[in-house]
Write a structure and sequence with these properties.
Order of helices and strands: EEEEEEEEE
Structural class: mainly beta
Distance between the termini: 22 Å
CATH superfamily: Jelly Rolls
InterPro entries: Ppnp, RmlC-like_jellyroll, RmlC_Cupin_sf
Helix content: under 10%
Largest sheet: 9 strands, antiparallel
Keywords: Glycosyltransferase, Transferase
Number of helices: 0
CATH topology: Jelly Rolls
Protein name: Pyrimidine/purine nucleoside phosphorylase
Number of strands: 9
CATH architecture: Sandwich
Pfam family, one: Ppnp
Organism: Paenibacillus glycinis
Length: 105
């Protein structure tokens, strides 16, 4: 899906790691939430409340998912899922464009 229809966008940015990671929140009529963002090169660790599906739209990064010992490389486009109430690490090598879906189970 290259665009979202009939949504509400929260204007204020979500900023993390001194602004090196930023996103905007998109709310859907059915109550679901996504964020659209950019990550600058660097190393980051994020925590989750809800299950997250991270869709990488463009970029070059490695992700270490909870409970795993091997990093997953994504170059260009890709996707990974992070369980609720966990932490994951990212090594971002180039500016990365992403969409994150929050899954309430």
């Amino acid at each position: 899906m290259s665009q979202y229809e009939n949504v509400t966008v929260i204007k204020k940015a979500n900023l993390y790691f001194d602004g090196k990671v930023s996103s905007r929140t998109v709310l859907f009529a059915d109550g679901t939430k996504k964020t659209l963002g950019i990550m600058l090169p660097g190393e980051y660790e994020f925590g989750t409340d809800a299950k997250e599906i991270m869709e990488i739209l463009a970029g070059d990064l490695k992700v270490l998912l909870p409970g795993e010992s091997e990093w997953i490389s994504i170059s260009g486009e890709g996707e990974f899922t992070v369980p609720a109430n966990s932490k994951f690490k990212l090594q971002v090598a180039s500016i990365t464009d992403y969409a994150c879906s929050y899954i309430q189970e």
